[in-house]
Amino acid sequence: MRLAELPEGMLREAVSTPSLHPRILDGLARLHYRNGEMAVLIVSHINCSEETRIFLAEHGIEGAPRPHHAAAQPHRNEELRADEELTEEGEEPVDEESEAFRGKYQLAQVMGVSDKIKIAQTGDKEWRMILIRDSNKLVSGTVIKNPRITEQEVLVIAKSSIQNDEILRVICANKEWIKNYQIRKALVENNKTPLPTALRFLATLGEKDLAHLAKSKSISSVLSTQARKLLLSKKKDR
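User: That's the sequence. What structure does it adopt?
Assistant: Structure tokens below.
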């Protein structure tokens, strides 16, 4: 049975367990935040994290006020947002050995596809890292459409040997992401990128990268040949 399909009685019993892990509470909050009564039970739990409280408050859940110091310390909220932005920009890598990450990973192992999709739509960086690797293409494909995903994460995905081709197509079609030189370069080097698109991005690269790609054995021969032609053309135009 999927988490989203658990009877409310069982959910109440689970949320009433004092030892329930904060990350499990966070997962339940993201699945059931539309259930106001359940959200209040979650936000009242002794192990409910501040991240979960903020998530519920941002979704207008009655009984889920922002942390008690929010009104008295508005500047502290600004610091929290700045810290979140720093993390989201990828400057602080996710610690896959941390208790928080392991808790989310374990929760993902018992979740159904629909539950994973719901969290993939709004989940934080840890959830995105876990679910982008999911074998179900609907799940991994939803992660790339998460509005919180950063260019740094997109770059990592573009460099990876990801199996879901649809993800690369979404990246290639995003005008903001492909303004990033490193993302375009990664897409050229990724053999999963459609060849016409890779050729288009190849033409935007600098001489140093073209020289490297002209000799590369890890990309399509069509791309390496075109890289040599572009390099010669740039040298002639000097």
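Residues 154 and 183 are 7 Å apart (CA to CA).
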